[in-house]
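Training component of the fellowship. As part of building independent skills, the fellow (R.M.) carried out the full modelling exercise for a liganded target. The chosen ligand was shikimate-3-phosphate. The inputs are recorded below so that the supervisory panel can assess the work.
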Amino acid sequence: MIVLIGFMGAGKTTVGHLLAEKLGLPFVDADLVIESRTGRSIREIFATDGEPAFRTLEHEITAELLRGQDVVLALGGGGVEHPATQRCLVGSHVVYLQVSYEEAMLRISHDEYRPMLRNPNLPSIFQRRLSSYQAAATQIVTTGGRRPEAISLDIIERLV
Ligand code: S3P
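Fellow's submitted model of the complex:
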């Protein structure tokens, strides 16, 4: 199981697709599984049920995916903050795609489908999450100014 973690805009989906293709594994995006299971968009879940309800659902689905077949799994940017999810990650290759706040915002700040972008505390949430990403990671990869292809090859070289 290879799990990609990191803030929104780190490139988890793009790198994850490349990695899965190279390793001959399916690629699974936890956010898309949440949407297909519930039949609702993440934006809608945040708007009607609120963030805590989303986090519970996110944990349940992530835990289930981690118990399932080997895949390349991209977690949502906040997934690793859930203590029970942190425990479920033990034993997987957890690749932290590092991105600066500025670069992440350049990539995604206009995305209307990411409700967290409207959170006024986003800079401090970014800072707060860094320790969770570090703690969960078995591999840390910088992404700044690098092409997704090079990043995916780098990850494969360093898989033990
Ligand atoms: C979130 C990140 C999103 C998605 C949801 C919440 C977050 O995933 O799970 O909108 O709290 O950072 P991406 O990191 O794939 O954008």
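The panel noted the following from the submitted structure. The pocket of shikimate-3-phosphate is lined by residues 8, 12, 31, 42, 76-78, 114-116 (CB under 6 Å). The radius of gyration is 15 Å.
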